[in-house]
Amino acid sequence: AAATPPKPLSRLEMLKQRKAERLKKQAAQQQQQQHSVESPSQGSASQQQEPHISSKLSPWMQARQPETAVAHRHAYRATGEALHTALNLTTASAVPGQKAAPTSRLLLFTNGCPNWGDGSVVDRPTTTTT
């Protein structure tokens, strides 16, 4: 009897399969890392010199890690915070010895959330009574 070729997987099934493989790989790496942390004197030299797992992640994923999130604070800036910083820069950029300009122009391009962070640009909710 001739074997029929396997039916191609749907996109969703393929993504599920890749996710399962990725999760298995991450679990194995975490288990290996925990084992090397628990018994560092028993580990081989090559195991001890292996870089930290977060250094293997992409910069996008590293920014989401709790231990590196502080270092990548700029990735989480909001529109309000960016606007506040830009206004501070325009007021502080006066040239010494010259008269300050009466107006400043500020162009702000951002894809950040407008109501997150210091200097929120969204009005606070007000209560209305009828």
How would you describe this protein?
- This protein starts with 10 loop residues before the first helix and ends in a 38-residue tail after the last helix.
- With 130 residues, the chain is mostly helical.
- 43% of the residues lie in helices and 0% in strands.
- It is built from five helices and no strands.
- The chain is elongated and about 85 Å long.
- The protein has helices at 11-38, 45-48, 59-64, 66-69, 79-92.
Mean pLDDT over the full residue set: 69
Please summarize the sheet with the most strands.
none
Tell me the overall shape: elongated
Query: Helical region count?
Result: 5
**Fraction of residues in β-strands:** under 5%
Rg, nearest Å:
26 Å
Report the strand count: 0
C-alpha end-to-end distance: 81 Å
Helix and strand sequence: HHHHH
Low-confidence stretches: 43-48
Residues in helices, as a percent range: 40-55%
InterPro entries: vWFA_dom_sf
Which features does this protein show?
single chain; 130 residues; mainly alpha; 5 helices; 43% helix; vWFA_dom_sf
Question: What's the structural blueprint in terms of helices and strands?
Answer:
Blueprint (H helix, E strand, L loop, with lengths): L10 H28 L6 H4 L10 H6 L1 H4 L9 H14 L38
